[in-house]
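seq:
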Amino acid sequence: MRDTRNGRAVRAKEENGDPPGVWSAYGRLLQHLRKQAGLSQQKLGDAIGYSLEQVASVEQGRRPAKAAFTIAADRALEARGVLEVLQDDVERAKLPRFFRNFALIESEALSRFSYDPLLVPGLLQTEGYARAVFGGHCPPLSEETIDQHTEARLSRQKLLMRVPMAELSFIIGEEALRDPVGGPEVMYEQWRRLLEVNALRNVEVQIMPAGRGFHPGKNGPFVILETKEHRDIGYFESQGVGCVVSDVSEVRAFSLRYGKLRSQALNVEESARLIERLVGET
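struct:
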C-alpha cells in the first residue's frame, strides 16, 4: 500500500513557498563535496565564476543550480559526474508542480504526438516566446518563477535531439502562428525556429489551417506518447490543471482523433511553405 502522506506534505511545503526537495538535496551534496575538497563557498565561487551569494543560495536549496553551474562545480570539485546526475531532476522541479510527473514520462518517450490550437507547443518555443507566455500568467508570477519555468521549458527540448531519437509529431493551429505573442520580433524568431525544427529527421510539424470548420481538435489540445515500456498514454491540460490518461479505450480515442487531425492539416511541406510566407511578410 502506498502512503500518500509524504506526497501531501511535499505539496503543502511547496504551496507554502518552500523550495522543492531535490534542490535541498542537491545543495547538501554540493556542500558535502565542497567541504571534502577543503574549499570555502567564496573559493568555490571564484573557481567556477559565481558569487559567494549564488553558491550559498544553491547550497541552502533556495535557488536551483543551472546546468552551467553544475558542470563547472562538478569539474572544480572532481566529483566525477555526481552533481550532473541530479541536474535533470533539478531542472524538472522548476516546472509547474502539476506537470512534473508527465515531464518525467515525456523525457523517456519513444514517440510523442501533440495538437496545440492556440499556442506554439512548449517543446518548440523560443526563449522569448516562453517568457511571454509565462509573463502573461494570471495571477502574475514573480520574475524568478518566470525565469525558472522558462529554463525548465527549454531544458525539456533536449527530447528533440535525444539519442536514441524519439519520433515527434506536432500539429499546430494556424491561429497560434498569427497571434503575436510577445510581439513581432518574438514571433519572427519563433517562425524561424519552427522551420529549423521541421528540418530534423525525427520531427514533423503540420499546420491546421484556420477556417477548416469543426474537427476533433476543437475540443482542445492533447498529447499522445509511447512510454519506454511501450505503453500509450494521453495527456491534456487547461487553466493550470493537467490530466494523464492511461485507460486503453480513452487513449485509443485520442489516437483516432489525432489521425483525423493529421489527415485534415496541411502536410509537412505545405506547412513549411506557410511558415516561410509568414517569415517573408515581416
